[in-house]
Amino acid sequence: MLDVGRHPNIELLAYSEVEKVEGEAGNFSVTVRRKARYVREDRCTGCGACAEKCPTLVPDAFNEGLRNRKAIYSLFAQGIPSTHTIDADHCRQMNGKKCGICAKTCQAEAIDFDQKDRILELNVAAIIIAAGYDVFDPSQIPEYRYQEIPNVVTAIEFERLLSASGPTGGHLDRPSDRAIEADIEEMEKSAGKSQKALVKFEEKYGESSAAFYEKYQSGAYPDDEDRKKWADKYADHLTVVEPLEALRKKAEGFDVARRLAFIQCVGSRDFRFYPFCSGYCCMHSIKEAIIAHEHGPDTTSTIFGMDIRAVGKGFEEYKIRGGNHSNITYVRGRVAEIVEGPDNNPVVIYEDTRERKVKRQEFDMVILATACAPSKGIAALVKTVGVELDPYNFLKTSPLSPVDTTTPGIFVCGCAESPMDVPESVAQASSAAERAAEIVFQTDLIKEKAVA
Amino acid sequence: MPEKNEDIRIGVFLCHCGSNIAGYLNMEELAEFAEKLPHVAFVQRNLYTCSEGGINEIKKGIKEQNLNRVVVASCTPRTHEPLFRSSCGEAGLNPYLFEMVNIRDQCSWVHMKEQENGTNKAKDLIRMGVAKAALLEPQEAIMSEVEVRALVIGGGIAGMTAALALANRGFEVVLVEKEEALGGMLNRLNRLGPTMMPASDLTAEKVRAVTGHPKITVFTHARVSEAQGFIGKYKVDIETESGVKKVDIGVIIVATGARAFVPKGLYNYDGKRVVTQLEMETLLKDGLAPGINNVVMIQCVGSRNNERPYCSRICCQTAVKNAMLIREQNPAARVSILYRDMQMYGVENEEMFRDSKARGIRYMNYSPDRPPEVEPDKVRVYHALLGREMELPADLVVLSTPVVSQEDAEVISRLLRVPIDENGFFLEGHVKLKPLDFATDGVYLCGSARFPSNIREAVAQGLGAASRASIPLSKGSVVVEPIISVLANEDACRGCGLCVALCPYGALEIQRTEKGRKVHVIDVACKGCGVCAATCYQHALSINSFTDQQIRSQLEAYLG
Under 8 Å CB-to-CB from B296, ≥6 apart: which residues? Predict the structure, then answer.
């Protein structure tokens, strides 16, 4: 990213969309909409002071909604460019409320609430589409109860939980426990408020609320309006404090997740959704299990899959190492169902096909290795650009021209072409660059000839 | 070289980074501290030293205060050192008389809650930076011409694709193939999955394009016997039937492919009734003999075991393809594939796998601790999912053996000074980020020389390696940061060669000189990693801008 941002031959148009493509190989006109950030790129230094002061919290999509970001933000800490963006849907100022704190905070005077989208016209010889993919939404699989059972998460959510810069600082706190901890925090706030009000009464009448309440309930203060308010306040307070105590007690027993299940082919190799194999998920699960084990040496992982496809360089060796040194057990079988057991523990029901037995096993957390779904916006994009898709909505190529789309001069690489892992994407990016460079070279040659 | 008695005037610029630094450290105290350090002639605080205003202040300082060394205490050199260096250059100061001190990432950011300790740490860091800056010497960027000609070793599908791609961009290419004809493994294949096009069609098309291309010189029945030099300037000897040809080469692509493992002594392999998948290709090409009605294929023969732990990636797809072709030639044939995991990754492979099941290919799972047994006319297998022993009649048994590295991989590895991995495949610069580059600049790899690849993958990698190789070719020169190893004390060097053996970039060589064997640094190949200087027990080698003296001065400054 850094290299791209710094390269003298690369003009980076982030937060922009292609609106129109005309022309042909060697001579395309491309219309690009540069969406308004409401922050001036030429001034913003990416220092983040604005985001620190911004009062508006918005669920952070980069962290899979597992924590909040501000209404002025950069997508993630190391993002390139580091220019911040105002989320116009949530910004108070942009929604007619009084705010503008970011503008006051910004010492570089980069905030510009009046910024408008800009339209750019580019002339290019070749186009490369590297639009990536989307994570399959597993809530479409009713038997896995994603979203119903809080401790069933996707591989990407788990990735954020494992990350030292993620919402849990890399601790495998279970989502159900995090929800209760958030509740406790809320209740503590409200208990603190009512406590303050009670203290005033206690000082006024010189006795504790508990002692007073006992007398009040036995009818000691009929027709005393002020004391009735006190009694009501105290009763309210009890409705918060008692469950709060119970939750606190429960939270004392919270522990990080130690028994993990990884479920392969969630949405992939599934006729209901995507019949293809997503290629990278087996290795992704193994990697996550190995890292989880690095975080906690007593962590055990069970990976449920039909075939474990460790087909890249060093992959099979990595898989075996995971089994020998990182407490990973590989079970051949497709998980039939996930139900919720005691203590929010997901229970996995599956057939171990090698033992020919249906089994139930309880885990602290279940991770769904979700399919590589074609990007949602791809249909609109290919219509704009003028290339064809395959039946699954990946860009159509042929085995002998693996990065050529159906339109000359337009190339594709990475998961927009088909599911692939990082090394393959990097290699394919070079392939697409090569094909594009050939077009540029031929175009220059034609121009030179025309001049001569 | 600077005058020894030159008056050293250091300017220190302290960046607030908005509140990223100034919010947690006492900047005023840092400024006062810096002013008192030896040779410091000027100290300034900036809200953002990297902003246009901040950069202008550096330039102004150099001109008006006659600064001849600049220290910026701010963020990370990873993002900002190039900017500050070039700003010094624009103001007429040698860019390498600049030193950067990171008082943000590992200082203000991690000591947000302890201003005093954080400020003291920043003082230490600045003091060390200033001490080193006083000893900095000017350096000049190193430039070297590139011979605009590529050598591609290996004329299989990956090598031919790479050669054509470079030639189509106007670069001269020399293609060396050890066999009599171009085509590599393609020549031995029947049809190609998943389209089932005849391999010979692809070979013919590519060979025609390669041999007809005015920019490509092809040497068949030839081998590279010598390759001396470095990126941009290789002297290569090619041994051909008509003698040794000497060519000047700028970049090299290794596309030497791989072989199929021959399973001698496994599963009663005899090359007749028990054959490999590669031999199956020939049988299918010639037309299946009549009477072959029961075929059993066994996967992972000689792979995913202790001897060869890797999965060879393409054998499952080959088996599925050949199974379907058997059924095409003899619709009555029963084909069973005995497998451990069916490695039909991706879209096309899984599609072919599904298709094959619809066409009646049978799949049976076996476990490596109870492998199948091949007997005359039948194969006995313990079906791991049914949990019982099965007997499959077999007129033909096909063993899916792994792709293994070429016999001469080691020779080429030594010749080009590039590494091979524990399985004998060539080892790329970085498994994720540089899959088609070697660590050594100017040498690239693609296809099954790197790891087993199918046609689609070999073509993609051939294009990709060409793309990587075209960068120095199109620039015509390489420019390298001068922060590299130098033989600072030639007399001390004993020519022992320890550094040469350890250099990961092939940037060192031993030369015979009048004073005996001495190490020579190939400056354009050196990346300044410092392994050689750290290893040299004679302290003969040194790294520019990280000399022993400079590092010692930093340590002394720190220790007080």
Answer: B335, B336, B338, B372, B379, B392, B394, B396, B397, B398
